[in-house]
Amino acid sequence: MQRTTLVANTSNMPVAAREASIYTGITLSEYFRDQGYNVSMMADSTSRWAEALREIYGRLAEMPGNGGFPAYLPTRLAKFYQRAGKVTTIGNPNREGSVTIVAAVSPPGGDFTDPLAQRKHFPALNWLSSYSNYINSLDSYYDKIDNEFISLRGEAKKIFQEEEELNEIVQLVGKDSLAETDQVTLATAQLLKDDFLQQNSYSDYDQYCPLYKTIWMLRNILTWHKLAYKAVSSVGENKTITLEMINRAMGPVIHRISSQKFENSTKEKKS
C-alpha cells in the first residue's frame, strides 16, 4: 500500500468531481512516470465516468449522441487512453518511465451481452470505429522492414469496411443471396478476424508476434483473397467457379493459412 495512490470518489459526490477524478488519477500517474517509475493505473470504472459526462451534457441541454452520451465521448476516451505508454523524460539524469492503464467497464445493470465479448473477440476493439492519431507515425519504419506492409494494411481495412456493408444485406436477405465475390470478401474478413487479429495472450505461439510474422500472415491471407476473388469473377461459357468449390479443392491450403499463427515465432522466417 505504500506504493499505492488512491483517488476515491463515491457515488454521492458531485458529478463534476466524478468527471475530474479520472483526470486526477492519470495526472498522478504521469507525475510518477516522469520520475522514472513504471506505473499501473486502475480506472474503476470508465463507464461511471462516461455516465457523469452524460449527466453534465444533459444539464447543459445539448444535443445527445448515441445512447444519450455526449458526441465528444469517443474523443475524450481516445485522449485519455493515449496518455498511456513508455516515455523518455527531459532533463538529467536520464529517466524512462511508463503508464499502463487498466480500465474496468461496468455496463448498466451488469449487462455484458456485448457482441464482441460473446464472440471471444480479444482484444475487444472495434477495428472500424477505433482510431489512433499515431497510425502513420511508424510508416517510415515499416517501409524499411517491408515496403508492402502499409498497402497490405490498407487492403485489410477495406475488406472490413466492405464486410460491414455486406452484413447489413445478409441480415435482410441472407448470405446465400450474395454474389460469389461478396461471399469471398466475407470469408476473407472471417480469416482476418479469427486467425490474424484475435490473440490469446496465454499461449506461447500467440502472446508475442514479431513484425515479420505479422507481415507474412497478412500477405498470405490477402493473396488467397485476390486469387479466390479472381477465380469466382472469371465466368466461362460452360463453367462457374463458386466459393464452395474453392473450399473443397483448396481445403488443405486454407487450413494452412488459418493455422499460420501456430508457427513458431522465435525463429525468423521469410514469407
From TrEMBL:
Q: What is its EC number?
A: 7.1.2.2
The ATP synthase A/B type C-terminal domain is annotated at 140-233
Which keywords fit this entry according to its UniProt record?
ATP-binding, Ion transport, Nucleotide-binding, Translocase, Transport
One Pfam family, short name please? ATP-synt_ab
Any one GO molecular-function label of the UniProt entry = ATP binding
Q: Note the Gene3D superfamilies from the entry.
A: Bovine Mitochondrial F1-atpase, Atp Synthase Beta Chain, Chain D, domain 3, P-loop containing nucleotide triphosphate hydrolases
Membership in a protein family: Belongs to the ATPase alpha/beta chains family.
User: In its UniProt entry, what is this protein called?
Assistant: H(+)-transporting two-sector ATPase
Q: Which organism is it from?
A: Anaeramoeba flamelloides
